[in-house]
Amino acid sequence: MPDRIQQQIESLRTELERHNRLYYVDAQPQISDLEYDQLLKQLEQLEAKHPEFDSPDSPTHKVGGEPVDGFASVEHRVPMISIDNVYEIENPDPKKPDVRKFDSRIRELLDTQPEYLIEYKIDGVALALIYENGSLIQAVTRGDGRTGDDVTHNARTIGGVPLRLSGDKIPPVVEIRGEAYIANSDFAKIRAAQEAAGEQPFANPRNSTAGGLKTLDPKVCAERKLRFFAHGIGYSEGITAQRHSDFLQLARGFGIPTSPSTATFPNIDAVLEHAQSMMEGLHELDFEVDGLVIKVDNLEQQSELGSTNKAPRWVIAYKWERYEATSKVVEITIQVGKTGALTPVANLEPVEIAGTTVSRSSLHNRDEINRLDIRVGDTVVVEKAGKIIPHIVRVEPQFRDGSQQPFAFPDKCPECESEVLQDDGGVYIRCQNPSCPAQLRETLKFFASRSAMDIEGLGIKQIESMVEKKLLTSLADVYRLHEHREELLTPKRTNEKSVDKLLEAIEKSKTQPLWRLLIGLNIRHVGNRTSQIMAGKFGMIDEILKKTEEELAAVDDIGPIIASSIFSFFSSETGRGTLEEFRELGLNMGEPVPEEDESVVRKLDGKTLVVTGTLTRFTRNEIKELIQQHGGRASSSVSKKTDFLVAGVAAGSKLEKAQELGVNVLSEDELFDMLESNEEAAPPTENTPPTNGQLF
Fold first, then answer.
1. pLDDT higher at 347 or 169
2. pLDDT per residue over 475-509, tens digit each?
3. Under CATH, to which class is 608-676 assigned?
4. Which residues, listed in sequence order, are joined to residue 469 by a DSSP beta bridge?
5. Cα 473–475–478 angle (5° rounding)?
6. What pLDDT shows up at residue 637?
7. Inter-residue long-range contacts of 196-205, CB under 8 Å, 24+ positions, other chains counted
8. Fewer CB within 10 Å, N- or C-terminus of the chain?
C-alpha cells in the first residue's frame, strides 16, 4: 500500500510539473486552469494524509508556506548591476548616447563586428534564482546591486520558477537572473476582484509585483500570480555555453521560461530592423515592456568588454518615454489591409500627446477589443511609447453611464461582403477574396511606393480612381495602363504631361532590381532585408521557383517561418500567375548569380564606408547598393575602422568625426571616379575635404 501511494504521489507531481512547463515555458497548455487545480488538490490531500512522502520540491509548496519573520540580506557573488539606458537610435549630438554610438564603441573596443542579441525589456522586478544540484535554494532581489533581500519564500510561489530543474546535465551551481512580473491578463482579473470587493485596486503590475515579493506572507504573494522570465546568468559552475543565446536555450531545457522573441543578428542594422517589428507587436504581449535590450551575444566578448562601476559595457537598453492622455472613443471602424486583415480602429476625440494631435488608434484585432472590453463612448487612456505609435492602454470603466455601446466585429468583409476567417492558431481575421477592392488598393499602393517599385505619380488618389474605373484589377494591370491613356486623361482637367510622366515612370520601373520586385509582391514576412538576401543568393525568379521550403529555410537569416511564406506564395496559382504576367510584360526577373572570379578585383573589398549629408548624384539607397556591389560594407557610424567617408552637402558631425579620426573623405564624384578607374581603391595621400568644388 505505501509503495502504491508513493507512486501515485510521484505520478501526480510529474504530471503537474509537466503542465507547469507546458504553460510557462512552452506556452502550449493542454489542460484548463480548473483541471490543473483539481490535480493539485488531489496531490495536496494525498500529501496531507501521508506526510512521510512530503518533498520540498513538490508543486504543492508553490501555493505558499508559513510567513517569515523578516528579510535577510544576501551578498551577490557576482554584482547584479543595472544596465545603461538610451532613448534614441541616433542623436546628432556627439555627446549624447544612442544605439549607434553603443555599436560604434563596441566594434572599436573589440576590433571586430560582434553578433547581437535583442530581447524585450520586461517591466518587472529583477530577481536572481540560485540552484544547487538542481534544487532552488535561494532567491534574491537586486537591492543595491551588491546585496539584496532573500525572498526565497515568495519566489517558490512564482509561476514558471521550478523548485527543481529538469534535464540531464544539471550544473552543480547556477544563478539564473531575470524578471518577476504579473501578466496583464492576470492583473486585470486581480483588479476586477478588488473592485468587486470594494477594495482600492492596484495601480500597475510592476508595483504589485514588487509588493508581492516584499511581503512576509508567501500566501499573499501566491495570490498575486507572479511569473518569471530568465534573461541572464550570474555566478555559475559547470555551465559550458559560449553564447548568451546558448545559455537561454539551456535555461529553457532546465524548465525555466526565458524572455520571449529573443533573436540574434550579425550587425546593428539588422537588429534595428527587427526592433521596429518588435515595437509594432507590443500590443500582442501579455506583459508590460519599457524598452528593448541589445547585448553582445558572445560570452567571451562580454567578458573582454567587462563593466564600469555602474553598468556592463556589452549591453544597452533602448527605452522610450511614456506619454499618456485621456480621450473618448467616438467610433470604431474596420480597415482592410493588403493581406486581407480586418483591423479595428478607434476614432478618438482629438487629444495632444507628446506634441502631436492623436485622433486615431489601432485596436489591432478582435481579441484586443475583447481584452480591453472597449466600447463606443468609453473614456480611454491613450499612450505613445517613444513618441511613436498611439496605443490605447486601458478603459476607465468608472466613467461609464450606460450610453456606451459594445462593438460587434463583422462576419463579412465591409468592403466586398466576402467571407472572413480567422488565421489558424492566430488572432487576425482576414477577407478571403483576393480581388477585394480594399486589398487591391493597399497592395497597389505598397507596390508603387518608394520602398518597392518606386513609381512616381502613382499615389493613393490615382490608384483609388483607377480601381473604381476597373483600369486596375491586379498588379500586372499597372503595366497595361499605357493602353488606357485616353481614359487616364478624363476628366479633362487631368494634365496630359502628368499622365505621360506617370507612364514613363511605370515603364522605367520595369528595370528595377529583383529585390524591389520581391518586396512589391507583398509576400508576408518579406521585407527589404529578406528581399535583398534572396536576390543576392538566387539571382533570378526562376531559381527561387525551383527551391523547396527546406532549401529556402536553410538560407542564412531567412528561417522556417519566412521560408514557409515565400514557398506558399511561389507555389500558389495567384503567385505564379502574377510572375508569368510580369515576365510577359517585360519586368526584370533577375540575372544569374555570377561565379566568383578570383582574378577580378572588387574595388572596395574589405573596406567600410559611411555615407553622410545630402547627395546630388545618387539616392542614399543607390550609393549603398553601389558600395555593396564593389565588395564594400556600408556602415552608419564613423569609427577608427572606417576606411572612407562619402560626404554630401551639409555633412555635419560625421564629417567632423571622420576628420578627427583621420578617416579618408570622398565626394560622390571622387567615389564614382575611383570605382570606374582601373586601379584598386586606395586612400588619398592626405585627409582633405572633397575636391568637387563644394565645401562640406
1. 347
2. 999 999 999 988 888 766 567 888 999 999 999 99
3. alpha beta
4. none
5. 85
6. 73
7. 204/288, 205/123, 205/124, 205/181, 205/287, 205/288
8. N
Residue 497: active-site member: no
Do the Cβ atoms of 390 and 380 come closer than 8 Å? no
Q: Are 390 and 378 in contact (CB under 8 A)?
A: no
Catalytic residue among 62, 96, 101, 121: 121
Q: If residue 279 lies in a helix (H) or strand (E), which one and from where to where?
A: helix 268-280
Largest CA distance in the chain: 97
Number of residues assigned to the chain: 696
Contact present, 175 and 233 (Cβ < 8 Å): yes
DSSP E strands: which ranges in 242-288? 263-265
Top-level class of domain 514-584:
mainly alpha
Q: Which residues pair with 243 in a beta bridge?
A: 298
b/e burial code for range 341-365 (CB count within 10 A of at least 16 → b)? bbbbebebeebebbeeebeebbbbb
For residue range 539-559, what is the model confidence (pLDDT) as tens digits?
A: 999 999 999 999 998 887 677
Q: Which CATH number fits domain 323-406: 3.40.50.10540, 2.40.50.140, 2.60.40.420, 3.40.50.1370?
A: 2.40.50.140
The three-state secondary structure class of 419 is: strand
Nearest residue to 522 via CA among 280, 344, 341: 341
**Cell triple for 406:** 459594445
Superfamily of domain 116-319: DNA ligase/mRNA capping enzyme (3.30.470.30)
Which is more confidently placed, 49 or 586?
A: 586
Q: With 70 as the cut, is the pLDDT of residue 690 above it?
A: no
Q: Can you give the three-state secondary structure of 635-666, one letter per residue? A: ECCCCCCCCEEEECECCCHHHHHHHHHCCEEE
> Strand ranges (DSSP E) for 367-520?
375-376, 379-385, 389-395, 405-406, 420-422, 429-431
Q: Please state, in angstroms and as integers, the Cα–Cα distance from residue 411 to each residue in 333, 375, 430, 530, following that order.
A: 14, 18, 10, 34
For the residues of 593-634, what is the DSSP string, one character each?
PPPP-TTSPPTTTT-EEEEESB-SSS-HHHHHHHHHHTT-EE
DSSP H helical ranges for 281-326: 299-305
CA dihedral 306, 310, 315, 316 (to 10 degrees): -160
Fill in the DSSP letter of residue 447: H
Q: Which residues contact 304 (CB under 8 A, 6 or more apart)?
A: 109, 110
Q: State the average pLDDT over residues 448-468.
A: 90
C-alpha span between 67 and 429 (Å, rounded): 49
- State in words which class domain 2-54 has: mainly alpha
- SS3 helix, strand, coil % of the chain, rounded to 5? 40, 20, 40
Half-sphere exposure of 235 (CA within 13 A, CB side): 12
What is the pTM (predicted TM-score) of this model? 0.56
Cα radius of gyration (the chain) = 29
437-509 is a CATH 1.10.760.10 domain: no
